[in-house]
């Protein structure tokens, strides 16, 4: 079958790879009908999230049709022919973390937990197409994918909603929503969102849906800011103005009540799992290139406010503004999205029209053209916000 493979730093290729097969009684095989490229894939391509190997299949946002199920899956749970969206975190459903609803912290889904232990000092859970650090699972930017714990993760779509309407339930819609939910938004709140990428846009819409008084989008890409403005959000271009000054102007000098970091590693200065050369190169590029989103969010947030971090980080970051955080009673919340929790409620929100995640789709490409898709998404060319790939 054809699949999008990581073939080295800043290099992806569509290759022939063996089709997946059932390896455990709780597996299913899904024939992928739609899959998307995520900002998290860019961290893998960049090499900022380490431990990819040549030929690894990328992709953790995918949906499709069940074509095979393992012997331990009851037919009323999942059967051949079911149409499903699949959450990006792989979760067993039975460990203490899963029982607490912390599905992206599952304790049983990463057979290679020792790799993360060694690099980060702690294990991380399994994620599709997300390096050997996260279990080494083949991803869903492919014709077929093996889904472990398929009796826990996949959500059946039984209505006639299009793939485009439900695909983002796999990741970026729950992620954006969780970013807003962690803010415990009140009706008077001004919510500032760093990053007007796909995750940021859906965090903005979620913040408004949860009752925010005003939502402010911060980015440097004019077309992404225009997309946020078209959805009714206020915008700040960080290339044109000082972000903190502008936020103070907009909030009578107090700062936003709630801040969401939907940028992540792109803005990190030196994650310590990188070697010295990469750290230096990254630090130089970023010190001269753009402000640091997370630092800026902590320093700009009003005293007593919340900074909610859904941008992905790994390893350690330097120059954490601990004084601003501590002295001003800022609450920091974060996590990989616990997607399973949000599947049903957010499906209802899509059905009712409260959320329309399709507004961010700018490109549909055949899987064969994935390399072009990665390029325009990474380089912000051709107005690219979100690419859907069709195997
Ligand atoms: P993206 O790369 O398309 O968007 C990031 C945006 O941030 C870009 O538009 C970029 O111009 C902007 N940006 C860069 N530096 C900035 C700064 N200093 N201030 C403001 N904006 C800045 O990616 P995406 O798909 O929207 O994903 C965003 C982040 O969310 C990534 O780190 C991704 O890994 C992460 N993510 C997390 C989860 C989770 O479960 N927590 C899930 C999906 C994605
Ligand atoms: Zn993703
Ligand atoms: Zn678990």
TrEMBL record:
Coiled coil: none annotated. Residues 198-268 form the Alcohol dehydrogenase-like C-terminal domain. Residues 27-155 form the Alcohol dehydrogenase-like N-terminal domain. Its cofactor is Zn(2+). InterPro entries: ADH-like_C, ADH-like_N, ADH_Zn_CS, GroES-like_sf, NAD(P)-bd_dom_sf. It holds the Pfam family ADH_N. It comes from the Bacteria. Keywords: Metal-binding, Oxidoreductase, Zinc. Belongs to the zinc-containing alcohol dehydrogenase family. This is Zinc-dependent alcohol dehydrogenase.
């Amino acid at each position: 079958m054809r699949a999008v493979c990581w073939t080295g730093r800043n290099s992806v290729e569509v290759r022939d790879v063996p089709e997946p097969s059932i390896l455990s009684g709780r597996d299913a095989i899904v024939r992928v009908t739609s899959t998307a490229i995520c900002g998290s894939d860019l961290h893998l391509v960049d090499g900022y999230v380490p431990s990819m190997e040549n030929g690894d299949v990328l992709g953790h946002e995918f949906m499709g049709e069940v074509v095979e199920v393992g012997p331990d899956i009851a037919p009323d749970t999942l059967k051949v022919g079911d149409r499903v969206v699949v959450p990006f975190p792989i979760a067993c459903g039975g460990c203490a973390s899963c029982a607490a609803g912390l599905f992206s912290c599952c304790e049983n889904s990463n057979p290679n937990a020792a790799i993360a232990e060694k690099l980060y000092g702690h294990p991380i859970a399994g994620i599709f197409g997300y390096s050997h650090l996260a279990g080494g699972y083949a991803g869903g930017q492919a014709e077929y994918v093996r889904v472990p714990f398929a009796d826990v993760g996949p959500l059946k779509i039984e209505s006639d909603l299009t793939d485009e309407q439900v695909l983002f339930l796999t990741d970026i819609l729950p992620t954006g929503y969780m970013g807003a939910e962690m803010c415990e938004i009140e009706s008077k709140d001004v919510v500032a969102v760093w990053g007007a990428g796909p995750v940021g846009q859906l965090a903005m819409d979620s913040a408004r849906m949860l009752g925010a008084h005003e939502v402010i989008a911060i980015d440097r890409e004019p077309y992404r800011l225009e997309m946020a403005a078209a959805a009714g959000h206020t915008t700040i271009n960080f290339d044109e103005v000082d972000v903190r000054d502008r936020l103070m102007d907009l909030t009578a000098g107090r700062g936003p009540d709630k801040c969401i970091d939907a940028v992540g590693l792109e803005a990190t200065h030196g994650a310590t799992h990188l070697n010295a050369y990469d750290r230096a190169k990254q630090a130089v590029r970023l010190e001269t290139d753009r402000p640091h989103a997370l630092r800026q969010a902590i320093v700009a947030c009003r005293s007593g406010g919340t900074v909610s971090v859904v941008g992905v980080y790994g390893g350690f970051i330097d120059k954490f503004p601990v004084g601003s955080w501590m002295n001003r009673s800022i609450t920091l919340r974060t996590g990989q999205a616990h997607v399973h929790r949000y599947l049903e409620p957010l499906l209802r929100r899509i059905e009712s029209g409260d959320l329309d995640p399709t507004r961010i789709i700018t490109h549909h490409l055949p899987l064969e053209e994935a390399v072009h898709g990665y390029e325009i998404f990474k380089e912000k060319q051709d107005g690219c916000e979100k690419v859907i790939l069709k195997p």
